[in-house]
Amino acid sequence: MHSTKFYRLTTKLSRQEMRDFRDFIASPYFNKHKILEKFARVFEESVMDCPDNPPSKEEFYKLLYKGKKYSAKNLSSLLNKAVSLFWEFIATQESLRDTLTRQKYLLTGLNHKAWSEGDDFKPFADAWKALKEFPHQDAEFFQQRLDMEAEWYRYEIRQTRGTRQVSLQPLLNSLDSYFLIRALEFACAAANLDNIHGTQHKIPPSIEGVLQVMQYHEKQAPPLARMYYHCYHTLVDRDCEEPFFVLKPLLFKYAGSYSLGEAIDLYTYAVNFCARRINAGEVEFLSHANDLYRHLIDDLLNQEEAKLSAGFFKNIVMVMATLAKSARPADFSWVEDFLETYRGRLIKDNEGVAYTMCKGILHFFKEDYRGAESLFHQVLNDVEDVFYRLDARAYLWKCYYELNDLRAFDAAYNSLRMSVKRAKEIAAYHRENYNQFIKNFQAFATIQRKKIEKLIESQEDTEKRIARLKRLRDHFREAESTVNMNWLLEKVNEAIEEKELVR
Question: Rounded mean pLDDT of 459-474?
Answer without folding.
Answer: 83
